[in-house]
Each structure stands twice: as structure tokens, then as C-alpha cells.
Amino acid sequence: MRSIRSHLTKVLCLSIGSLLVLVGIAIFFAARAVLFDQFDATLLAKGRALVTASEIDGGDFEVDMTVQDFAGFGAGGSEYFEICHPDGELVERSPSLKKSTARLLEIAVPDHFEPEIHPGKLADGTPVRVFVQKYTPKGDKKKRFQELHLVVASPVRNLQLNLIGLALVLAIAGAMAISLTIPMVRLVLKRGLSPLENLSSEVSGIAADDLTKRIGTAGLPKELEALATRLNATLAKLEESFGRERRFSSNAAHELRTPLAELKTLAELGATWPEEANPDRCAEMLTVIDELESLLEKLSLLARADAGSLPIQREPVSLRASILAVVDRFRRQAEQRELTFKTEIADEELSIDPVLWNAILGNLIGNAVHYTAVGGSIQMESTAKGFVIQNPAPDLTDQDLARLFDRFWRKDEARGTGEHSGLGLSIVNACVAVLGGTCKADLSPTGRFRVVISWNDQPR
Amino acid sequence: MRLLVVEDAPRLRANLGLALTKMGHAVDLAEDGPEGESMARMNPYEAIVLDRMLPGKDGLSVLRDLRRDGHTTPILLLTALDGIEEKVRGLGDGADDYLTKPFALAELVARLEALVRRRHGKADSKLRIGPLEIDTAGKSAARDGVAIFLTAREFSLLECLARRPGQVLSRAQIEQHLYAELDGPQSNAVDAAIYSLRRKISPEGTPPLIHTRRGLGYVMEAR
Hints:
The complex is a heterodimer of chains A (460) and B (223).
Chain A: H1 4-53, E1 54-57, E2 60-63, H2 65-70, E3 80-84, E4 90-93, E5 116-121, E6 127-135, E7 148-155, H3 157-204, H4 222-272, H5 279-307, E8 315-318, H6 319-336, E9 340-345, E10 349-352, H7 354-371, E11 377-383, E12 386-392, H8 398-403, H9 424-434, E13 437-443, E14 448-455
Helix pairs in contact in A: 1-3, 4-5, 5-9, 6-7, 7-9
Chain B: E1 2-6, H1 10-22, E2 26-30, H2 33-42, E3 47-51, H3 59-68, E4 75-79, H4 84-92, E5 97-100, H5 105-119, E6 126-129, E7 132-135, E8 140-143, E9 146-148, H6 152-162, H7 171-178, H8 189-201, E10 210-213, E11 217-220
Parallel strand pairs in B: 1-2, 1-3, 3-4, 4-5
Antiparallel strand pairs in B: 6-7, 7-8, 8-9, 10-11
Helix pairs in contact in B: 2-3, 6-8
Keywords (chain B): DNA-binding, Phosphoprotein, Transcription, Transcription regulation, Two-component regulatory system
Protein name (chain B): Response regulator transcription factor
GO molecular function, one term (chain B): phosphorelay response regulator activity
């Protein structure tokens, strides 16, 4: 697996190494240019000194010997010059060349009178810098030494040795720097990436079955703090989501287990004691089966709503007739509990799926009738834009509101009867969402519980 | 055995009570936590079947409060929650056993009997009083290897006496073990049941196993 640290180590070492090599080369060439400039400046000064020191004295050409000795042109010196006529006839040469009969070197002299410096080689192969200039010495009244060619050669071997020395120093220093770079880069990256590695090990330590863990953000650099905070938020969401799933599975199993236990006990009674296998017992079993069937239908409706496969067939539905029909279904139960209905229903039509609309109304009105205290009032308002139902719910708290739409949630955990499974509001929520509306619940300070359905986009 | 069933699901509660009664046990029923706790405190039950989720006060709270106050009656938690942590929690809070819904009646009864046996220090389901051998699991009794046919109520009385050999039990104590709260036995019901049981377990010519202590009650032992 690719590691950021080893990748960065490799890339940084290569980059720094390349940079060091380039810097070394740049230093070398810069130093070389400076040294050659200095060398040429010296050569130029010598050449000009020779031009200045040349004169015609009594018709003879002379070069001041002091200048020659000083500039290293004397016998045994390492600097050389030759002065000749334009036709090549030798006029003067430095004492350092006296023993040699060969010409200093063949080089073209410029047509103008400005000096020029070129690289060159002596006859014995010695590399030199060559100063060439066309000039006329002072005092040449008879015009015998017009436009003389001055060639000055200065060996560059020492300069080259110095440059080789510099190159060696740079190469050794570069190699040492590169060899030190690797451990330094490693150390810096180890320290620099340690918060990332700590974060990684913390994240690795979060087991899939334990989402309660969170990543510590104290001491994290700000770049990682944002990541850790985001991860923690994601973990919290996952935990909540898994918790809800777990609760749903557990509750679904729970809701099925109690009626199954009832069925099993009823069946065992009949099987063990034949006199108990009577019509009453069978009727009881049918009731349990009906309740189970109703529960499964609710679960199936929710599953289809979740999967987006709930068929919707909209048709015009009279608000008043549809709501009052459901109220009538619960009227007897409401009368037993001395509940009153207050309705304000607009005389409008709603384009809606009648089956889902009935499921919404049945669950909301059924819940209100079941949970409103004896003698209470249930209030409903409805237009084509929405539906509101409210009833007193003194036991409900603001904390309960957060879980109201959770599947199988009930205020009292005990689930003795199959009458209310705790799926009603989640079915309402799912049906409203499928129909393109929103469903909200709130609790007034006086303890009245209200469910508000808004149809966002009411198709006509 | 006299049992208490605390269960909020009405059909399950009634039918469980009926089945246990038909098996010869005296069964009291409670529909919520407070009622169940109050009955558990008032009556000497051999075992209690307690639902985990109850209205009013949940089963675990009832269990904890009973154990905190020193009640040692075996309690079997009955629940629809099957998670390991739920079981561990229930057992940790003082339940003696745990049964998940749906369950087989036979398993429930076997577990209750095992709990009661353990309470009386018995590892198996066999009780022996002299020549009499009683199998509390198989609900059978035999004297010198000869099977004795007993009604459920007679077997319950025999089991009640045999579990306490040499111990005098008053009529009131026997009533409490044999009859549920709502049974309301007649004044001579215990004497009549003792008479009937004596005839079956000690035929003429054999030494009696149930002895009367005048003014005190009855004791079972082989002399």
C-alpha cells in the first residue's frame, strides 16, 4: 500500500537532491564566470599596459622593460606577448618567449582598434586567454610601425586548477548535504505527519460495531481538526442512524414476538387440553392473527414508502367528506371517552391518493382519540394547502417530539395490547413525504400536541 | 406450586394462567408493575414469571426493588427483547432465569420447576420420602415402584408437603401454596385433599406418610 510518508520522503529527497545539484552547478558556473572576468580584466590591463609602454624612440620600437617585468613578461615569466606588423613581420616579443623560435599563436587580429579577448592554445597545447589589439605606438613619426598587431597570451592552467578545486568542494559538500537530507527529511516528515498518523490510528481503532467512540480533537493541527470534527459529526450521524435501525429491528421483533407468544400459548392450550380447543379460543387466535396482519401491512407500507415503490393514484377528494368519514370511524370510541371534535374544513377538493390520505387521517385521528385524556377536545383545520390536528397531551415532553416519528416509538415502553404499535406517526410521515408534503409536530406551552401537514406542491 | 404471572398482554396473561392452572399450579395474575410487585410482597409464591416491559413500573425495576428488599423468590424474566445485553442486564439485576417470547409452555414450566428445585437445594426432579418416589418434572408418583394416579391438585399438595419433609405445615400455609388468591377454597378443602391424598399414597396396611399434628397442621415423613 502506498504510504504518504515514504512517498513524500522519496519526492522531497529527490527534489532537494536535484535542487542541491542545480545550485552546485549554478555556483560553479557563476564562480567560473567571475574568475574568468577577473582573469580577462587582468589580461586586458596587461595588454593596455603594453600598448601604453610601446613607443618609437629614435626610430626604434621599444617596450618599457619595467612594465614587461612587472606584468610577468620577463625572462622566466609565464605571460607572453608578440607585436608584429600587419604582414606578420615580428616587431617585438616578450622575454619569456626568447628561447622559442615558434610564433606565439595564429590568431586573427580585429580590423578595429578596440582590444578583444579570446580563448586559445599555445603551440605546446597550453590553454590560454588571448588579448589581441591593433594599435600604433607613440612617437612613430616616420610611420614605420603603423597598425601593429599585439597578441598577449596568459595561461589559464592555474585558473582551471582553481575551478577543478571549486567543483570538487561543491561536489563533496553537495554529496554530504544530500546524504544528510534523507534522515532530516525523514525526521521532519515523521514529526510533521505524526498528528495524521495518530488520527489514522484513532480512526482505525473505531470498530464497525462500536460507533460510540469519537476522535480527540485537542492538540490537532487546524487542518486535521476540521477533518476530525467532520469525522466525529459523521460518526454521530452513523451512530444515530444505526441506533435507529437497531431499535427498529429490535422493536419489529418485539412487536411480532408478543402476538406469536400468544398464538403459541393458545395453540398449546388446545393441543394439550382438547376441551380448550373451542370456538372462543379459535376466535382469540384469529384476533391475534388479524393484529399481526395489520402490523405486517403497516411494515410493508413503510418498506414500500422507503423503497419509493408506493403506488400513487391521485384523484380529486373532497376534504370535508374524507375527514368526516374518518372522524365517524372513531366517533363511538370518542364518545366512550367523552371527547369532542372541533373541525374547520374548507369546502375544497384535494388532488391526492385516497388510500394514502385515509391512512394519514386514520392514524392521526386514531392517535388523537386514543391518547387524549377523557373529556378532552380534538381540533382539526384543513384546506387544500394543509391539515392541522391538535389535542391535549400533558404527558408529552419536548424530548419526546424528537422521537415521535421514530418507528415503534411509544411514550410507554410496555406494549401490552396490539392496538397501537407505535408506527402511526412514522406511516403518516412516510405517506406525506411520498405525496410531496411535509409533516411537523410541535407542543404548545399549554401542553397541546399539534401535527401540521403542508402540501408543498398541490397538483390540481 | 403457587405462581405469580406478571404480564401486561391480556391474552397472553390469561392463557398462560389457564395453562399453568391446568398443570396443577395455583396461579395469580397481575397486569402491571405496581400490582405485580405488591402481590409478590404479600404472598409466598414458589416462583414468579415477570414480563420485562410493563406499564406503570417496568419489570426490571420491580425485580430490583424486590431483591433490594430481600425477596428471594425465584423470578423468571419473560421478554420479547432477545439481545444478549438485555439478558445480562436482567440476570445481573437479580433474575434467576430468562425466557424469550415466543416460548413453549413446557419449557416455561420446566424452567420454573428447576428454579424451585434449586431453591430447595435439589439438583434433580426426584423427591423421595421413604418408599414414595415423586417426579416433579414428570408429575408422577410411585410407592415401592407402583404408580399412583393423582389429580393435579393432589399432586400439587403432595409436592408441597414432600418438598418440606419433617416440617409441619399449617392449613393456612398449605392453602397459600395450593390456591390462588381468587380460588377462595372452602373451609375444609385442605382436610379433604389431605384425606384423599393419604388414601392414595398409603393404601391399607402400609405405614402412613402424612401425619397430623393436632392444632398445628400436617407433616410428611417416613417413620
